[in-house]
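Form 7-S
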Amino acid sequence: MLDIKPIFSALLRSKVGAVLLFLQIALTTAIVSNAAFMINDNLSYLREDTGYPQQEIFSFTVMTFGKDIDLRQQGELDEAMLRQIPGVINATLTQAVPLSGGGSSTSIRLKPRPEQSREGRLMYFYGDEYALDTFGVELIEGRNFRPEEIMISDSYHDNGPNTIIVSQALAKSMFDDESALGKSIYVDGRALEIIGVVALMESAWPRAEDSNTTGIIPYINAQSYQHFLVRTDANERANVMKIIEDKMLAAYDKRVIINVDGLDESKEAYDATDVLMMRMLIVLVVVLVLVTALGIFGLTQFNISKRTKQIGTRRALGARKSAIVRYFLVENAMICTVGLVIGSIAAVFLGRGLMQTYSIGALELEYVLVTALFILIMSLLAVVVPARRAANISPSIATRSI
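Output:
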């Protein structure tokens, strides 16, 4: 076994390089562990099920400028026309597109104000009796809307609905493990009876903490600006999207059709910032690890060049090549250990700061431990090649090199 004391003494004689290296290792540990946690969090989010058959659904927006039609009646006619297009499974009018980043939400209560009551958050969509099938979500309890329950108006408060279909997550958040069927929640002061529960239905903001506390309200907003959601056979979606503008204008030409997008495309646009950040973090991790490895390699080469006579003398006194290699490995491990301890502490504090600033989850300690282990192994591998070169120095060449 090597004596640690002479290695420590040698480090003190060239402490600038050692200090710079363990600071670099500490910085790498702190940043890489948090970056790895955020990358995995992003990957987990991107792989999450949303509840929708995204490849089958597309949306488009209608801006009507004509004044010679009844918007209530025209909406129903448009829906009926859309369902007649070959390849279309169903269609519905709605005020917001799922997963798109633009939608509607409100607070909900179990009792009307001013009574004390449990409160929650509802991310909601308007829709009719065709909404469930168009959204492609799974009804696990209760029933669908009946035609007579659908309210068509240009003012929700004047002529609002009395029923609602909610997600399982919302039902659990408001009623715990009790069945939500037949119970009511208060939305904007109006009592809505829960007639159905769907398994999973993400909101327009899938990144939101309460994104899955959603519901469908049986209401059609008869206004000049409307969203249509259309579900097709997966293989026919592209063809239907190509002809949808012509079909809509043929039915009524005093309007504009915009934003014809697949639901998966809307989700990709919403996730674009997260994907870009994830790619930048991956690049940052790779660069930091490479720079740290090169720093360890360079410092070891520098120490070898400074200690050529010392190495040669040890070789002349009978030191084995393995002892020379082990010397540099132990020296590097000492520097790396100090850097990893400081970096691990810094990683925890950095994680707390990121959690408070960006509302992300708390850094899990396993990411810090795995990162520290990876950097330790990487640093030892980085020192092996120059250490083996040092072990091959001839005693005669070493003594003549001073």
